[in-house]
Write a structure and sequence with these properties.
With about 190 residues, this protein is of the alpha+beta class. The protein contains five helices and nine strands; from the N terminus they run E-H-E-H-E-E-H-H-E-E-E-E-E-H. It has one domain.
């Protein structure tokens, strides 16, 4: 069954909390969604969800909380949780580039995943992808960073609140459940739910 992981989805607040609860979670529709097509969540640390709402939604956002069951066999893990997957992904990129499917000057993680998920049958065993983006939360949003340097006067640091995303490939991936609005509080306090 795997450990239970709490996740957060950040959405633009359109004043439609009933629709959010009844139809959520919502699939990312961006052409260059970082990990390809799917349902995006921030893992464990709600700070990442608030950062996204401030940085990308202008501070007008809803956060929904949910849970999933962590399963190593069903997650392609690029968050350094499984370094073998990082090596496999690098190999896929090299092979696709060599065969002419990707061009180095415009290759993105999203393009690779969109190709892999539709053209490589062995990848169908996965229900989600996890990734950590160490520089996602930039200097403009320092209030969401928690870092400590390994050495004084060096750029390397330990990220105490890493921005780990999971992209679920479907609404039922990894026993997804318990989707509910937790921010802003007025939706809860006004008795909407």
């Amino acid at each position: 069954m795997g450990r239970i992981v709490t996740i957060y989805q950040t959405l633009k607040d359109k004043g439609n909390p009933d629709e959010v609860i009844n139809k959520g979670p919502f699939e990312c529709k961006w052409n260059n969604a970082w990990l390809g097509k799917g349902y995006y969540f921030w893992e464990i640390l709600i700070d990442s969800a608030h950062w996204w709402g401030n940085a990308h939604l202008g501070g007008n956002y809803i956060i929904c909380k949910a849970q999933y069951n962590f399963d190593d066999a069903k997650i392609f893990d690029l968050s350094n949780g499984n370094p073998q997957h990082n090596l496999e992904f690098e190999g896929i990129i090299n092979e696709l580039t060599k065969k002419g499917f990707l061009k180095k000057h415009n290759t993105t993680v999203s393009r690779v995943f969109n190709f892999v998920r539709t053209h490589i049958p062995s990848f169908k065993i996965y229900e989600a992808t996890r990734a950590y983006s160490p520089n996602a939360i930039g200097e403009k949003f320092k209030e969401f960073q928690r870092r400590i340097n390994y050495e004084n006067d060096k750029k390397m640091y330990l990220d105490l609140r890493p921005a780990v995303q999971i992209c679920l490939y479907s609404k039922t991936s990894l026993n997804f459940r318990n989707y509910q609005i937790i921010y802003p509080k007025h939706y809860i306090e006004e008795g909407v739910f």
